[in-house]
Amino acid sequence: MFERPRSNSQAILVSLDFLHGEDNPLEEFELLARSAGAEPSAVISGRRAEPEPRYLIGKGKAEEVRDAARRTGAGLVLVNHELTPSQERNLERLCEVRVLDRSGLILDIFAQRAQTFEGKLQVELAQLEHLSTRLVRGWSHLERQKGGIGLRGPGETQLETDRRLIGVRMKHIRARLEKVRRQREQGRRRRRRAAQPTISLVGYTNAGKSTLFNRLTGAGTYAADQLFATLDPTHRMVELPGAGRVVLVDTVGFIRNLPHELVAAFRATLEESRLADLLIHVTDAHEPERQEQVAQVEAVLEEIGADGVPLLEVCNKIDLLEEGGPRVEYDSGGEPVRVWISARTGAGLDLLREAVASRLHRGLGAFRLELPPAAGRLRARLHELQAVQSEESLADGGWRLELLIEPARLDSLIREAGLEPDEVIGGGWEGPVSRAVAGGGGNTF
Question: Is residue 280 helix, strand or coil?
């Protein structure tokens, strides 16, 4: 039983600038609050040299927040910083309204957005991690232990019971998420056996990942001008001419100071990025703090071990820029590293498709094979791997195939079929595929 102040959708937003501390923009925090369904009725801001132990924001600011809540009738105080359990409890006692810090607000948004069974489990685990340090206020209405025989109240016993029950539930959730992780790994192994590359969309929340995902796949997933509009990862098989089928994955967006409970709970989901063949890092080209957001995403990728995965940056929302159209930027070796597009209007998507095909074709070779009629199983396998670019029948019942495939993989397949590479490869390996061949003209997903 939690006797906490009742809340409503009216919220007081509190955001201070500390000389030495975390930097969370107020504009982003307001969007977070609205994404959670809150209606900001007042904003309390200010500057402090360092956080204050009792209220974090200082006694004077805390009283200002209390007065604003009473004046506006707000039933919720949202603090754009991390609060300790005691600071959160002290503010609630003073203001007599519900208090949520930045982590609690993000957890609430995730709880609203979770749709799949796995997503709900992940959010529940993160919420329990967060709640486990904040149980004391839940039993403040009961008599507390005062010391002395006959003076022990039921509060202590209930706290220990709750902690034990939460621990049991967290253990149960982790076991179920581990089962989900194993199922995901089985799916990845199947895709690797079928030689289907995986492309994972990553980026700061509200950068336009889901809009781009819908443009490329026609999936129709939910996309809105909200933070964390998409929570559950979505997979779609798409066709990329010249590269075959690929699996495109839309993942949860990142944000500044993403709660560690969420990173830990969503590790199974985030593994999709760590084990992808290519990351498409979607950024908001119109965002003034774009570079800071890029740094935040790179920090999370490093935390989950995905910093070594090949990455293609996509600068989205160029339709909001006053100048500059769709274009591709290349590195010194001629590889595409950055594509400027608009997912909303579709501008530059052809350039993006060509750049993706080029990056996926790195290490592939162009071959011409002449297979005898007895090699029908090898021919079928090459078609299954989407490696066949063209085919023509021979007079003896065999086939002449033009392929795009990794040299080592082709060599292995030929030997598994009981043939020698020199017997079937006509004209030899033509060398690495150039960017023009990889991208092709007018390739579409």
Answer: strand
Number of domains in the chain: 3
Q: Is residue 14 located within the same domain as residue 90? A: yes
CA 362/CA 439 separation, integer angstroms = 11
What does the mean pLDDT of the chain come to?
79
Cα(358)–Cα(438) distance, integer angstroms:
5
**Would you give the DSSP letter of residue 7?**
-
Given a cut of 50, whether residue 103 has pLDDT beyond it is yes
How far apart are alpha carbons 284 and 314 in whole angstroms?
9
Gap between the Cα atoms of 298 and 314, Å rounded: 14
The verdict on 203 and 264 lying in the same domain is: yes
Which pair of structure tokens corresponds to residue 336?
A: 């595409």
Same domain, 328 and 199: yes
User: What's the helix, strand, coil split of the chain in %, to 5?
Assistant: 40, 20, 35
User: Does one domain contain both 218 and 294?
Assistant: yes
pTM of the model: 0.69
Q: Are residues 337 and 308 in the same domain?
A: yes
What is the β-pairing status of strands 336-340 and 278-284? unpaired
Distance CA 34, CA 383 (A): 50
- Give the structural domain span for 407: 365-439
Q: Answer whether residue 134 is part of any domain.
A: no
Asked whether residue 41 falls in the same domain as residue 88, the answer is yes
Instruction: Select from 333, 360, 387 the last residue of a domain.
Output: 360
| pLDDT (tens digit per residue) in 354-394 | 888 888 876 667 788 888 888 888 888 888 777 788 899 98
Q: Which has the closest alpha carbon to 101: 147, 143, 134?
A: 134
pLDDT beyond 70 at 251: yes
Residue 31, both tokens: 């969007």
- And the tokens for 425? 């490869």
351 and 206 together in one domain: yes
Same-domain status, 408 and 275: no
The first and second tokens of residue 348, run together, are 């530059």
CA distance 262 to 274: 16
Residues 371, 379: contact at Cβ < 8 Å? yes
